Amino acid sequence: MAGPLTVGVVAETAPGERRVALVPKLAARLIGRGLRVVVEPGAGRKAGLPDELFTAVGAELGAESSCGDAADSRRSDIVLTVTPPSEEDIARLPAGTVLIGFLDPLGDPARVEALERAGITALAVESIPRVSRAQAMDALSSQANVSGYRAALLAAQLSPRFFPMLTTAAGTVPPATVLVLGAGVAGLQALATAKRLGARATGYDVRPEVAEQVRSVGAQWLDLGIEAIGDGGYARELTDDERAQQQRRLTEAIAGFDVVITTALVPGRTAPTLVTAEAVRGMRPASVVVDLAGATGGNCELTEPGENVDVGGVTISSPLNLPAGMPLHASELYARNLVELIELLVDSEGRFAIDPADEIVAGACVAGLPEEVA
Amino acid sequence: MAGPLTVGVVAETAPGERRVALVPKLAARLIGRGLRVVVEPGAGRKAGLPDELFTAVGAELGAESSCGDAADSRRSDIVLTVTPPSEEDIARLPAGTVLIGFLDPLGDPARVEALERAGITALAVESIPRVSRAQAMDALSSQANVSGYRAALLAAQLSPRFFPMLTTAAGTVPPATVLVLGAGVAGLQALATAKRLGARATGYDVRPEVAEQVRSVGAQWLDLGIEAIGDGGYARELTDDERAQQQRRLTEAIAGFDVVITTALVPGRTAPTLVTAEAVRGMRPASVVVDLAGATGGNCELTEPGENVDVGGVTISSPLNLPAGMPLHASELYARNLVELIELLVDSEGRFAIDPADEIVAGACVAGLPEEVA
Q1: Catalytic annotation on B291?
Q2: Do B142 and A168 touch (CB under 8 A)?
């Protein structure tokens, strides 16, 4: 009989990445279910989680690499990662490994093909279907929560204004006005955070049914009179006419705000332009744009991905990995998502029990037929 | 008859300084009172206030320097500055100029002597007495409000944790715990901002009478059982025994917090040590200390002024000029303070009417007898 399944935790190597795919208290939960947990040395260090915290709950430290490296006696059956594996990483994974993490299947199909060729069963958290059973596994949402919160903090830090109204003996400073474009999880969290800080927050989305959610966090709804509802809760792409009309009205509206935070993403597609160069020119000096869509081209026409630029006194900031800036809680939320998914894959004895017909498994699995694992 | 008094606005040259001593809408107020306002070109640029906004309200742009330079025909009777003038700046000021700004009279008495020798009437905003008539001129308070707000934002940005409690489908993240040491204007604003962001905020001060103010912003009061009330609303220095007892109890308390923000300043003195090296060692990894007292040695023993340092996973940040990071509103609040003071110095014809017996004038004036001006 084989021993219990081993779960390996990768030390992330992507530049600027500070998250880790498992945290000690969730390692303890897996160990409590009879699994072994092997953590690559230093994997949690940048998240404020030194190795001792992992070994204290019974996790082991990998000798060299726990990422399924054949040279490591403790090669893992399940490998957890935050960022997608490089070609080298994939070459080191033995066939039959179950890999779970952000794998960017729509953005980088070549990687998925490489995983398929290597005989890896790859479960992409991006591909978990948005069904209620899978809510606790929704890593896109958990990390979007972090992004939205950090985006509002970043905007407050970049703005030369107070977000809250301030009353002093010499008079009153009015609250900052913040417009958030895109009212998904990140947008709603950005609205809620700006509102908490005391700003006047306003939300906009092409899906009119989210107006109620925008209002529920205390923000106002910006009604431009254009609707575009698509599949899976995402916005569909607008027609050319709709887009032109939207941009004209948005450009007018944007001029009235001190801060604009954009969060409009269409999976696997270039981000829609919502803030044109003309709109930026219409903003007052000392205004701020924070664009969360920089990795897929940006929602602002003048965004330079990963940079802060000054255009006529308007600061345009394009942070590329906001969750990495808050690695402890971002990792904890992510690890909860992964552990929920792992618990769907193993039985009470700590052995694989993968149901390839399960819609969550079938949806998440972007390479390697689950039938081969079961 | 002489023409109306001229108020000159300096373009700040201190490294990192982005504030300006007057903003357009308050320039308009002075002009409305019959004064001329001359702004050094570019003075407001880094605060998001281009020259056009000043000229639009009737201010003039200085030909070379409006800082009283004798070579400038538009030499000013009253010169407004944010940061203290350099030796060179002082050499360029004609005798008889009234200089108003942060002049650091306690920290740099040599500068005050140089101003005296140069025949400048120097009004230091730090020396304005804390009487109710002078509340609207209280630049220390207005800038401390900015510092406290920015300190809480900085702490939130440095912390790898959410400040608010977050409830997700995969579970709940508890709110961050924030301890603010020193409950003056900056401390209270830091508490209020941390609380707004959703953290559990706790305040401490050696003056027990501020407990009520701490509670009024929604924070808890940390009672260590040590009191030290001094003159002018500042804390007196503690005795050695009191200090030892305070540090022991504080060190124990600090270990329980995710974030510590220190704001304990004693004017003209080295800042008291409140967070010892031992206390930092007692904090959990991924904790954060933001020390606002870095310019006078720091409240944390391991502070390196102007730097972010990592000590065993604890980040210690010592920002030196937080108001400069929010230059638009910091400048606006500061300008209101200065305009209130100027209005005390001029009559309804826009001419000097300085009453040397006025307690505000007498207190603020650190060089140059006002009798000579009147």
Answers
A1: no
A2: yes
Interface ipTM above 0.85: yes
Show residues of chain A in contact with B141, CB under 8 Å. Answer: 168-169
Taking each helix axis as running N to C, give the angle between helix B327-345 and helix B139-158, from 0 to 180 degrees, rounded to the nearest 10.
170
Tokens linked to A26: 């969730």
Instruction: Give the model confidence (pLDDT) of A239-291 as tens digits.
Output: 888 888 888 999 999 999 999 999 998 877 899 999 999 999 999 989 999 99
Q: Which residues of A touch B159 (CB under 8 A)?
A: 326
Of A47, A136, A150, Cβ closest to residue B170: A136
Q: Could you tell me which residues come within 8 angstroms of residue B241 by beta carbon, excluding any fewer than 6 positions away?
A: none
B346 & B244 share domain: no
A37/A150 same-domain check: no
* Domain boundary, last residue among A304, A324, A344: A324
Residues of B in contact with A26 (CB under 8 A): none
pLDDT in tens, B106-134: 989 999 999 999 999 999 999 999 999 99
- Is B287 tagged catalytic? no
Strand partners, B316: B289, B309
What whole-number distance in Å separates Cα of residue B46 and Cα of residue B25? 17
Check whether residue B155 and residue B100 sit in a common domain.
no
Domain range enclosing B317: 144-324
Contact flag A286-B136 (C-beta cutoff 8 Å): no
